[in-house]
Amino acid sequence: MKKKTLISSTKYVLVLLFLLSNVTAFSQKKKQKETKTETTKDTIAKTKGYAELLKKGSLKKGLFNVIQVKTDIYFEIPDSLMGREFLVVNKLSQVPMQVNEAGLNKGMNYENKVISFYKDTVAKKVWVKSSLPKVSSPETDAITASVKDNFSESIIEVFDIETKNSDSTSVVIKVNKVFDGKQKSFNDVLSNIGFGGSVKSDLSYIEAVKTFPGNIVVKSQLTTSVSEGGPALSVTLGVTSNIVLLDKVPMKPRFLDKRIGYFTEKHWYFNDNQHAMVEKELITRWRLEPKKEDEARYLKGELVEPKKPIVYYIDPSTPKQWRQYIIDGVHDWQAAFERAGFKNAVIAKEPTESDTDFDIDDVRYSVITYAASPKANAMGPSVVDPRSGEIIEADIIWWHNVMTSLHSWMRIQTGPIDPKARGNKFSDTHMGEAIRFVSSHEVGHTFGLKHNMGASFAFEVDSLRSKVFTEKMGGTAPSIMDYARYNYVAQPEDGVTAITPKIGEYDKYAIEWGYRWYPNESEEKTKLSALIGKHQNDPMYFYGEQQDGGAIIDPRSQSEDLGNDAVKASEYGLKNLKRVVDNILTWTYEKDASYYETGKLYIGTIGQWQLYNRHVLNNIGGVYLNTTVHGDHKSSYVPVSATMQRKATDYLLRNVITIPQWLFFNPILDKTNPLKDSPVGPYEYTPYTLSRELQYGILYDLFSDERLLRMIENELYQRNGAKDKLFTVSDLFKRVHQQVFSGTIQNKSLSILERMTQKNYVDVLIVSTNKLFEKTDAKKLMFTKTLNMPMLCNHVHEDQMIRNINQSSLKRVTEVTSEKKGELNKVLQLLKLKKNTGNLETRNHYSDLINRIEKALNNPL
């Protein structure tokens, strides 16, 4: 009985399970059907929304189709472009006066970033992520998984998917917020130009949108409020954002050799076989390649046209008389690219009617932009693909007032030997040739070339006085990328006429090294190394890195110097400066005009004198810094010879420690003081004040701690005990002391200028000694930096030397302290001995100096 009941129960359970499984299956099918129905409805709704959007607005087809409905902007992004890399390039396209005065102008590129779009079908959103694509590893290596996790992208923006296109192969997003100033994700103009604050969205709008096969251009008017101690000012900036599709496969990079000067992008390389990460620098350059059908001819040495030449457009707002000179300055580089195997590689032209899409702010066009501004400068930046160093586009900014600098340089440096360079205004032809030189220099930067401040050191100074040599070389240095300026060495009797900087031998060599095409990496490495090796001992091909102007170590690489002997070049320069001073009133004469031009030329002449002084000064304690490699048999550090340092010191004693009265006290002062422009008008400098300040500056730098420490290092490191070949700190103090106190030693009454020099000298020693004992943060006492990872950043700004040499830590316990205090004690003893000699003014002067020195030496610090 019990058994029968059990069987019946089992049947019942099985039947029940069967029924439940059918119900479940039915329920699941129903849900799937409902889900499918909902998805279908959603798709229908989305595509219906797309049709309605098109009906309401206008459609522009391109990289992303752009739909505009009144003031709303929509991007239609194809699924095929999801995950691809784009470069956002932001530029100024309009600026008001307040920004213009701050040195910011149309055409300036202030922010770039790499972004990618990702579709999220679950959240119905498009995520935008940004990355620094400067890290690489082989796809199949195990470490690659770690590389991806440790250098991942960051989310910078998100958009709702508004609708889909008719076949659901693209999504539509509304993008107003990233271009009208509400969000900073795509364009943070205020932070990047140093204004800070936020955009006033109610006073900002999207002005225009254009789309092309490879990029999108969005123009906006963004307004902010600026207040600096006064009422708030409304400032509206015209900005242009380009979204550029980057190639799937980046250009093959070329790696930097530091013996040649190129801008670079840092890149880190990881792989499984390493014992340490490798950091390399990719030079920035255009993708210049022969056409496939021309490769064989190219490799045989025939000149061929590149697949895609480098084209520059002249801004239509450029005054007509200067356009051809700017074009000629670009085309002067043709010979350099021919050295690299390419003809017609560089083209400059004015836009024509056939360039229907031409837009200065469009990254498809490299433009030499002419900026109406009081700023006197020009610059040549580039937009670079950070993955490879490929230059995508270049914008040369040409400020209108650069001509004021050219006028001043030519007048002061070449006026004595060139009658065309003497008037208040030059002929258009003469100014045009100067514009051509600047055009060539700035275009050189857009090819990736850095300044080569050491190029001018290749020429013997006296060769710059040779008509035959200067005509043969064609310029003042082997590189137009040096700041060699004009030939101030040549004298009127020399008959030299080739006095303008031009593209030289180094420039051609640098372009060949950077742009010659090679079919494979192995050949490229071998040939490039051989090219540098062939020229490494020839000064014509020397690359001298730009240094911080206030901390020159290598005197070969200075701005605006000429020749291989700064003392001799500056002495020739002074002869010409005396001729300028003698003619300032004549050259600037203009009936019924003020003496404004006279005062301006006068202060420019004084500035040139100070420039010569610094060229000479930097040889004292100077060190030649050579970029060396194993096997080249070169020394990395070569102190400037003792002979040269003595010559340099004697020059300063003659021309600075003894103030040149021909320069500071002459008939010009009957008419005007030296004048310098300022925001409130011309600013006058009295000769006593100006000469005192400029002399003090030279003395302070002469006895800077870093300079004296280099001299001490040299003394310690001198080989073979050749002490007679040294110029020591003691030698320097002895020479200067004898000159500064010569009148005191001879019991003479001192002139105003002699007393001024003594005060400057003593004050320099007191101030610099006191600084050695200022309270120092413990963190600043580090001898060297810790082993930090290198920073992922753009190339170092050129006004700072990339090579860092630490000589300044713990200066309080160096010989510098003893030397400076020793000299102060020596001066004190002399003054106490002579305090009752000379006239009343001299005795008062001695008493003052004694009090100052005693107070400084008894300073409890």
Automatic annotation (TrEMBL):
Note the superkingdom of the native organism: Bacteria
Q: Does the keyword Lipid biosynthesis apply?
A: no
Keyword Signal carried by entry = yes
Name the UniProt key words of this record, in alphabetical order.
Answer: Signal
Give start-end of the signal peptide: 1-27
Domain DUF5118, chain residue ranges per copy: 48-95
What Gene Ontology molecular function terms does this protein carry? metallopeptidase activity
Q: Which InterPro entries match?
A: DUF5117, DUF5118, EcxA_zinc-bd, MetalloPept_cat_dom_sf, Zn_MMP-like_bac
Q: Which residues belong to any copy of the DUF5117 domain? A: 107-291
> Gene3D superfamilies annotated for this entry?
Collagenase (Catalytic Domain)
Q: Which part of the chain is the EcxA zinc-binding domain?
A: 424-745
Protein name per the record: DUF5117 domain-containing protein
Lineage, highest ranks first: Bacteria, Pseudomonadati, Bacteroidota, Flavobacteriia, Flavobacteriales
